[in-house]
User: Which sequence fits this backbone?
């Protein structure tokens, strides 16, 4: 019959790597059947209980060290518990022989004095303490790699906003991977230096992309992690926007890869819009987010992590960057349109749907009577909201009416209705030619377009808000409506004409896809390019990784404030302030 013995050490803190090594050491002792060495959180106690290692009589707090041994007999269990300190001492002695450090500071401020050139602080302490350490790092003017999880959403938002105001990065919480100037942080792979930058809201995703780029012969300038919640609506991609801006300004970064776990649609739209204005090829892969097209302007959309890597290497090899026709247009005009709304009025249901797919990554909020997701449902098809795409051929409109490919009356009425809205900056229509369609659709639509334009000019409050018309013309030279005549009538009336939905979507996305300048101070590029020096607070293995890569580093012998006594810690903090 086995025997279980345990030992509780109040307020004794060790990082998870030390606990793992101690547990393995205990398992190697004679007569030991099983062992558990954990901080006594409820989650850890539940795991011990599931493995029959938690007697009911154990009383411990979350900040206490709990050592449990199951052995074949009482003597073996007692001996094993007694050897815990010996195993810890042996590990410390081994580390001191391998370490070049004579002194390890016990506070972040002391570590900064020891290594003042450090611009980075790696934090991997328990989540309930992590925000406090990160806040102190920001106050000291340091970028933060926040590996710790279980940090509250409120703390994450507050930390990232504070960092943005100082021009600092908070990568995390729950950020597992980053590469800064050739040095891997956390669980990064060792890859060659190069001209591809990565912004990753996915740790293993960043590893997969950077490793594949390396395998394909490419290299990484910087890979900036954001933490998995950064692209959620509450956080608003603060770190991702900062990282994109920094890599766009970095002369050594020629191509950028942007990857994320499933993002919130509104945040994805804002980030993609920002990426359009970066002036560099950007490869986007948002897991679970349907790509609008394969390529729009400077953006290419991948359908897998490996393809994102392959496209980025291909873009790097092709040094010629294709610029959209829109980049030659007046920038003031871009800003004016981007502050207004698009209304699309379609006779073709499939064209409307394809346009929705293409624009949903760039326009938010976007509504339709032919939505792709429930969040896009237009509750009243007779009245548009924000950006709206309407399929006028839907059965809702067809009761007692001819199809809009034959009869333009409904569309003309809706054009006038939309144009009366001062918040509308563009009307997008399709003109579908062919057998059975209206014999001269442009001839009927152009007078209405001119009428709308004249009415807008007569309205003083709209003088600076010219309404733009865009049309996609679908047809052939052999169609009875005379394709070239239809195009000429429209272009002569000032309508921008495209022959495919893809071209029209690209144009519209670029017209509306300009976002406001990144808030706060820009990240200091010189700090990214300096030889990395860092302070490590938490997992000692991260410190070992830094030094093995040749980086300067200091490891802080961190302990929970006031031995984990939250009331006493709060009192001490109040006295300090």
Assistant:
């Amino acid at each position: 019959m086995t025997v279980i013995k345990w030992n509780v050490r109040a307020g004794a803190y060790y990082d998870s790597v030390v606990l793992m090594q101690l547990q393995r050491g205990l398992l190697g002792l004679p007569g030991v059947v099983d062992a558990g060495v954990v901080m006594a959180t409820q989650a850890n106690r539940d795991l011990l209980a599931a493995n029959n290692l938690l007697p009911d009589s154990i009383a411990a707090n979350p900040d206490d060290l709990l050592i449990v041994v199951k052995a074949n007999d009482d003597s073996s269990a007692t001996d094993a518990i007694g050897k815990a300190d010996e195993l810890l001492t042996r590990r410390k002695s081994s580390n001191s022989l391998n370490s070049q450090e004579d002194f390890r500071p016990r506070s972040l401020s002391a570590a900064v004095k020891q290594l003042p050139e450090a611009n980075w602080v790696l934090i991997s302490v328990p989540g309930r303490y992590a925000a406090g350490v990160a806040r102190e790092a920001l106050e000291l003017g340091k970028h933060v790699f926040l590996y710790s999880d279980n940090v509250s959403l409120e703390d994450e938002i507050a930390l990232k906003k504070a960092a943005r105001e100082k021009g600092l990065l908070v990568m995390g919480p729950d950020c597992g991977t980053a590469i800064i100037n050739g040095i891997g942080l956390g669980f990064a792979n060792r890859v060659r230096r190069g001209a591809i930058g990565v912004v990753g809201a996915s740790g293993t995703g960043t590893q997969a992309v950077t490793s594949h780029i390396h395998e394909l012969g490419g290299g990484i300038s910087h890979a900036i992690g954001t933490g998995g919640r950064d692209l959620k609506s509450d956080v608003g991609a603060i770190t991702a926007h900062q990282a994109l801006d920094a890599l766009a300004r970095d002369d050594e970064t020629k191509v950028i890869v942007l990857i994320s776990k499933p993002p919130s649609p509104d945040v994805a739209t804002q980030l993609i819009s920002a990426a359009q204005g970066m002036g560099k090829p950007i490869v986007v892969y948002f897991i679970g987010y349907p790509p609008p097209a394969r390529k729009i302007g400077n953006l290419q959309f991948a359908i897998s992590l490996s393809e994102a890597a392959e496209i980025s290497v291909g873009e790097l090899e092709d040094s010629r960057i294709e610029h959209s026709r829109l980049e030659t247009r007046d920038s003031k005009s871009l800003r004016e349109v981007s502050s207004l709304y698009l209304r699309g009025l379609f006779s073709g249901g499939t064209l409307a749907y394809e346009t929705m797919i293409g624009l949903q990554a760039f326009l938010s909020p976007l509504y339709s009577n032919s939505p792709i997701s429930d969040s896009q449902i237009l509750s009243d098809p007779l009245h548009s909201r924000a950006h709206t795409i309407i399929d006028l051929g839907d059965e809702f409109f067809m009761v007692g009416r001819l199809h809009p490919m034959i009869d333009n009356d409904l569309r003309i009425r809706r054009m006038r209705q939309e144009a009366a809205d001062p918040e509308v900056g563009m009307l997008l229509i399709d003109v579908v030619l062919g057998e059975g369609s209206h014999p001269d659709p442009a001839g009927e639509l152009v007078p209405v377009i001119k009428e709308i334009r004249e009415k807008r000019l007569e309205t003083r409050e709209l003088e600076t808000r010219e309404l733009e018309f865009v049309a996609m013309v679908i047809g052939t030279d052999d169609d009875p409506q005379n394709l070239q005549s239809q195009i000429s009538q429209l272009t002569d009336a000032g309508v921008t004409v495209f022959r495919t939905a893809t071209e029209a979507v690209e144009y519209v996305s670029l017209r509306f896809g300009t976002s406001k300048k990144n808030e706060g101070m820009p990240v200091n590029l010189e700090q990214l390019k300096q030889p990395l020096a860092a302070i490590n607070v938490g997992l000692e293995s991260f410190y070992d990784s830094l030094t093995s890569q040749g980086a300067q580093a200091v490891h802080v012998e961190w302990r929970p404030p006031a031995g984990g006594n939250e009331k006493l810690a709060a009192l001490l903090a109040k006295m300090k302030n």
Summary: The chain has a mean pLDDT of 87. Residues 441-458 form the longest helix (18 residues). The longest strand covers residues 193-201. Residues 231 and 237 are 5 Å apart (CA to CA).
